[in-house]
Design goal:
The chain has 476 residues and is of the alpha/beta class. The protein has 19 helices and 15 strands. The strands form 4 sheets. Strands 2-10-9-8-7-3-6 form a 7-stranded mixed β-sheet, with helices on both faces. A 4-stranded antiparallel β-sheet has the order 11-12-15-14. Strands 1-13 form a two-stranded parallel ribbon. Helix 10 links the parallel strand 7 and strand 8. Helix 3 packs across helix 4. The longest helix is centred in the first third of the chain and has 20 residues. Bound molecules: pyridoxal-5'-phosphate.
């Protein structure tokens, strides 16, 4: 490089403008207004250091020292660093409750409530009737009891925390009997045996992976048993030659020995989903009615609310849980409660739920909406993808996600992109997938079977124009 620059066009270190001169340059005014002097000075120092190194190497062309050019590079670097890391994306993966993409989307009522809680003081732990201190659980426990039939309820940061707290509060240094078929791992870091250990409880596994009988539980009960526990299999299904024992039977056995039966429902739904044409999933109310003394479930899976772990059940057990010091460590903040209350309220009017609860609206979105959308967007994507790519509007299947009903699939519609060129199609698909991911609002699909699949279930009508707009030009 060095010998390509002639003496006249090569800048020396002494030609580099001073920091002060650059700070006063008109071209840096917008950066100073947007980012402040501290950031601009730091960025200019980095820029000047780099220029100096290149000048000493004899590789610095003179025109790069122009104040406008230095300002433009500095501003670009500052703008890039100021971009939020948490970005909005289009979830076209076909998985509605996608853990890596933030799970449930909140309905407008919850958004308004969070905004209020963010910007005004609120009675988070203040009893407006007595003027004395309140308990933050009071804000939602009546609603949870009404919706589940439980005697009492409490909330923590997520369902993993709910399970940890429940085990520590009710089974510290004692035994918990669980079927081998239910020792699940959920998304890497949550494994029932590990949580059990951290909670101080001793796991007693019964039965085999595919078959557990009532007698297996019964024979495992001893003087150190704290509870019988059932865990929803969530992200996998045991099929074929299988046998498991239902909540009612496990609860009856536990109760006969004076022990509680607990259930980690995982996703946990508050309504019978079959009324919306979705697959059957036991509700929290049914689980309580079957005899469970305590049920834990997530706030941001099928429930469609904020990240939270809900515990509902017998009043004496909830009291014990609330006295455990871990409860304080795992408690929810006001934003969670602000979001959760309006979501729970929506469940009081099941007639409107499929329209008002975003998660359910997406899960029940009819093909007659999705298919024409796929046909409308086919040409848009084909133009954006450019020559070599073939885009088709095709039927596909969405998944609920987050461990809910892992084998049931929802008929959906979307776009399948294939590459016609010779050689490995994977390379072209990877390239297109990357370009879509680099858009201002990244588009996330999935590659399978030599095609890139974009499931349109989660692209609601109100977002379609913005989606098309950023695909107006061919992707570079
Ligand atoms: C998802 C899940 C959890 C963990 O819930 P988080 O809310 O993600 O902490 C625990 N148990 C089961 C059965 C689950 O499906």
């Amino acid at each position: 490089m060095a010998d390509q620059l002639s003496g006249a066009s090569r800048a020396a270190a002494s030609d580099i403008p001073s920091l002060d001169r650059l700070l006063n340059a008109e071209a840096l005014r917008p950066a100073l207004d947007a980012h402040g002097r501290t950031q601009v000075v730091a960025a200019l120092r980095r820029e000047l250091d780099a220029l100096r190194r290149r000048a000493l190497d004899g590789e610095l062309p003179r025109h790069e020292l122009d104040a406008a050019a230095v300002a433009a590079r500095t501003s670009a670097a500052l703008d890039k660093a100021a971009q939020p890391r948490l970005r909005a994306v289009y979830n076209l993966t076909g998985t509605v409750l996608h853990t890596n993409l933030g799970r449930a989307l909140l309905p407008d009522e919850a958004v308004a409530s969070v905004l209020r809680a963010l910007t005004t003081p609120a009675n988070l732990e203040f009893d407006l009737d007595s003027g004395g201190r309140g308990d933050r659980d009071d804000l939602i426990d009546d609603l949870l009891c009404e919706l589940t039939g439980a005697e009492a309820a409490t909330v923590v940061n997520n369902n993993a925390a709910a399970v940890l707290l429940m085990l520590n509060a009710l089974a510290d240094r004692r035994e918990v009997v669980v079927s081998r078929g239910e020792l699940v791992e959920i998304g890497g870091a949550f494994r029932i045996p590990d949580i059990m250990k951290r909670a101080g409880a001793k796991l007693v596994e019964v039965g085999t992976t595919n078959r557990t009988h009532a007698a297996d539980y019964d024979n495992a009960i001893g003087p150190r048993t704290a509870m019988l526990m059932k865990v929803h299999c969530s992200n996998y299904a045991v099929t074929g030659f299988t046998k498991s024992v239902g909540v009612a039977e496990v609860a009856a056995m536990a109760h006969a020995r004076g022990l509680p039966a607990t259930v980690d429902l995982g996703s946990g739904t508050l309504v019978d989903l079959t009324q919306f044409g979705l697959p059957k999933e036991d509700t929290v109310r049914e689980t309580i009615a079957a005899g469970a003394d305590l049920v834990t479930f997530s706030g941001d899976k099928l429930l469609g609310g904020p990240q939270a772990g809900l515990l509902v059940g017998r009043a004496d057990l909830i009291r014990k849980i609330k006295k455990n010091p871990l409860k304080r460590a795992l408690r929810v903040g006001k934003l969670t409660l602000a979001a959760l209350e309006p979501v729970l309220h929506l469940y009081r009017a099941p007639e409107f739920l499929a329209q008002r609860l975003t998660t359910l609206r997406l899960l029940t979105r009819p093909l007659r909406d999705i298919q024409p959308q796929a046909e409308r967007l086919r040409g848009v994507l084909a133009h954006a993808a450019g020559p070599g790519y073939a885009v088709e509007a095709v039927p596909m299947f969405s998944q609920i996600g987050s461990g809910a009903l892992p084998i049931d699939q929802l008929p959906s519609y979307g776009l399948a992109v294939r590459h016609a060129g010779s050689g490995r199609p994977g390379r072209h698909l990877d390239r297109l997938e990357t370009l879509l991911r680099r858009l201002p609002v990244p588009v996330i699909g999935r590659i399978a079977d030599d095609a890139l699949w974009l499931d349109l279930r989660c692209l609601e009508a109100r977002d379609e124009a913005d989606f098309s707009a950023q695909l107006a030009e061919p992707l570079a």
